[in-house]
Amino acid sequence: MKIQLLKLAHARSGDKGDTANVGLIALREDYYPLLVREVTAARVREHFEGICRGEVERFELANLGALNFLLHESLGGGGTLSLMTDAQGKTFSTALLRMFIEVPDEEARSLGIKEGTSDK
Amino acid sequence: MKEKIRIASGQGFWGDMLDAPVRQVKGGQIDYLMLDYLAEVTMSIMQKQRARDPRAGYARDFVPLMREILPDCVERNIRVTANAGGVNPVGCAEAVRDVARELGLGGRLRIGTVTGDDIMGRLDEFLERGIELRNMDTNEPLSKVRDAIQSANVYLGAWPMVEALQGGAQVVITGRATDTGLTLAPLINEFGWREDDWDRLSAGTIAGHIIECGAQSSGGNCQYDWQSIPDLANVGFPIVEAAPDGTFVVTKHEGTGGIVSIPSVKEQLVYEMGDPHEYITPDCVADFASIQLEDAGTNRVRVHGIKGHPATEFLKVSISYSAGYKAVGTLVYSWPDAYAKARAADQILRARLERLGLRFDQILTEYVGANATHGRLAGEPSPDLPEVQLRIGVRGADRAAVERFTKEIAPLILTGPPGVTGFAGGRPKVEEIVAYWPALIPKTEINARVEVTEA
Predict the structure, then answer these.
(1) Which residue in B377, B390, B437 has the most chain A C-beta atoms within 10 A of its own C-beta, making it the best mutation to test that interface?
(2) Which of B91, B135, B189, B316 could be disulfide-bonded to B165 (CB atoms 3.0-4.6 Å)?
(3) How close does chain A come to B447, measured CA to CA in Å?
(4) What is the pLDDT averaged over residues A62-67?
């Protein structure tokens, strides 16, 4: 089934020059392996197609149940050069939480995850 | 040696809640108050202020704040570390000394200043000697923007502040010091950590990272279950309660709002994170993959297990340079067809700019309410949106062209699509762009200077 990341993770994002960073944090420890498997740098690059113009790097932080993504060339030049409302990439966090990943039904059931976008 | 010390965060940036540091001082027991005032562009603003008035060029808010809290700080021996000095730490220290004397505290405290971060006057010397100060992001040599440079400051670490604290400073005022150093310096001072104790220096650095953005680790801007975070109106800024072995608890004062929880701390840990295995500061290289978090009670998160690596041979330099002009104009379009009207207005405006022969490096149009933050990820806007704000910005080297653009927004009200409003603020302002140039310099080139004087 397709599950939206909003149901599996929370996130915070920020900037370093023209690079946005998104820290994606598993809502529960046992969701983390799922994120590691499905939310790859390539998938994130595809998700942000047209928004991120450079490479996407991914770093694993198993101790925090978190992944850190660097989205290069994403902020219209960055800092004061950028004309964007979100020149500092603060909303890239929630933009990533829009992503859907495919989870086998049985795995989803064992983790207690229901299909869709939100429990609330 | 004390068994633990409490370091309170009072300011996450210049412009943060004015009363937060006061509430940190008056709301409970603390040993140190750290205040971070400097964003990357702040230095160039201060440089301009000092050019107009040699006594200016620092975070002015800091002086009235000292007036309010200095008596308590002296009475209870709370020591302050602040990078409020901007491009004029000495001027800032003089202003604080004047305040201390007015309060009748003359002779009862010492003020430390850290200088040596300002390398504006040495740039040509460096360039001549082959220190190119290449842009860390683009690898371009500094000579490309040499004539446009407005400020150049090295990020100093914790050690000069430690020296000031050891000299008995109650208040330490620095220029461009790292945010994390403001927390690490008190820990080194109290616990006598060695210069090569990389694990503990990294622990202190990570403690600094957790509290340097103020309430962003204690419930502010926290996505995790945000609706259940209590009483943000009365949000408590974070406090680090640290032990000599480098472990610490993140907490906040009793009776304040917000929350300190594992998710709130995790969100701050990943904020502005690069390679988490190598968080580089002048003092050490911290490994965020070593951090262990543990629930230690209500609004208490224990942090331990931190490992670090030796510091590098370089310091980061923050250079600001003038990079042209920009302006952003907005108009609001209402139902029906709000989004279609805003798009039509954008087309009309662009055609007029074209006809006027105005050239820009970039024109960016966003539709606030439809897709300004998430772009195409937000999906196709509903045809039924109640309103959409057209937000259009330009930038370029030619100030006159940007100025002319600002005069083309209001005419759209009477000459464009219907149902438009939201121009009460008048013409957009032309802003000079001060851009940021990060570079590295060998540590051996820089000498921090520390002075501690009686107020």
Answers:
(1) B377
(2) B189
(3) 27
(4) 98
The answer for residues whose C-beta is within 8 angstroms of residue B339's C-beta and 6 or more apart is B333, B367, B370, B381, B383, B385, B388
Return the CATH number at A86. Answer: 3.30.70
Indicate whether A116 belongs to any domain: no
Domain housing A49: 2-105
Average pLDDT over residues B124-133: 96
What distances in angstroms separate CA B103 from CA B64, B66, B111, B267, one per listed residue? 12, 10, 15, 41
Is the Cβ pair B326, A83 closer than 8 Å? yes
Residue A115 lies in a domain: no
Helices (H), B103-171: 123-128, 159-166
**Inter-chain residue contact A95 with B377, CB threshold 8 Å:** yes
Question: A-side interface with B, Cβ within 8 Å?
Answer: 10-19, 21, 23, 25, 27, 47-48, 50-51, 59-66, 68, 70, 76-81, 83-86, 91, 93-95, 98
Q: Locate tokens 């945000």: which residue?
A: B226
Question: Counting beta carbons within 10 angstroms of the beta carbon of residue B134, is it exposed (0 to 12), middle (13 to 18) or buried (19 or more)?
Answer: middle
Residue A120: inside a domain: no
Q: What is the DSSP letter of B118?
A: B
Task: Note whether B270 contacts A85, CB cutoff 8 Å.
Answer: no
What is the tens place of the pLDDT at every residue in B189-240?
999 999 999 999 999 999 999 999 999 999 999 999 999 999 999 999 999 9
**Tens-digit pLDDT profile for residues B8-42:** 999 999 899 999 999 999 999 999 999 999 887 78
CATH architecture of the domain covering B321-437? 2-Layer Sandwich (3.30)
Q: For residue B183, name the pLDDT band (cuts at 50, 70, 90).
A: very high
Q: What are residue B439's phi and psi, to 5 degrees?
A: -150, 175
Whether A83 sits inside 8 A of B393 (CB atoms) is: yes
Where exactly are the structural domains of chain B? 5-117+155-312, 321-437
Q: How far apart are CA B195 and CA B451, in angstroms?
A: 21
User: Considering the domain boundaries, does residue A112 fall inside one?
Assistant: no
Looking at chain B, the whole-number percentage of residues with pLDDT higher than 70 is 100
Count the neighbouring beta carbons within 10 Å of the beta carbon of residue B9.
33
